[in-house]
Amino acid sequence: MRRFIPRLLLLAALGGGLLIWSQLRRPRDLKISLDLTGALPGEVMDLDVTVRRGGHALARHFVRYGAAGAPGTVELVVFAAPGNAEVETTLAYREKPSRRSVARVKLSAEDPAKVSAQ
């Protein structure tokens, strides 16, 4: 009986640690706040945002705004595990060439990741 209790405690600690680790890595809805104020949002016709991690795409959002233009701030929701990610933004203007920018962000469940499109 004396040898059984330490083994049981070890298995309980190992099981608890695995449970906590799996909850931390569980995918959830994470927000990205895209600030377009520096990119003349009223002139942006199309917005294409790709979120990647490790070279693999996590999400892609394409929005066509038309004549009204894009708002100053756009919020996106990505279903993924928290951690570092790369956000690629392509802005298509009416009379100008498209602009592409890439930013590295940390996705977390507490705060939205802030990206400034240039």
Describe this structure in words.
With 118 residues, the chain is α+β, with helices and mostly antiparallel strands. 18% of the residues lie in helices and 50% in strands. It has one helix and seven strands, in the order αβββββββ. A hairpin with a 2-residue loop joins strand 2 (44-53) and strand 3 (56-64).
Helix coverage percent: 10-25%
Structural class by secondary-structure content = alpha+beta
Strand content: over 45%
Average pLDDT reading: 90
N- to C-terminal distance: 67 Å
Low-confidence stretches: none
General shape: rod-shaped
Oligomeric state of this protein: single chain
Rg calculated over all Cα atoms: 21 Å
Question: Numbering strands along the chain, what is their spatial order in the largest sheet?
Answer: 3-2-5-6
What count of helical segments does DSSP give?
1
Helix and strand succession?
HEEEEEEE
The number of strands is: 7
Reported for the largest beta sheet, the result is:
4 strands, antiparallel
Keywords:
3-stranded mixed sheet, 4-stranded antiparallel sheet, 118 residues, alpha+beta, 7 strands
Q: What would you say about this model in short?
A:
The protein contains 1 helix and 7 strands. By secondary structure, the protein is α+β, with helices and mostly antiparallel strands.
Question: How are the SSEs ordered, and which strands pair?
Answer:
Layout: H1 4-24, E1 28-35, E2 44-53, E3 56-64, E4 73-80, E5 83-93, E6 99-107, E7 113-116
Parallel strand pairs: 1-7
Antiparallel strand pairs: 1-4, 2-3, 2-5, 5-6
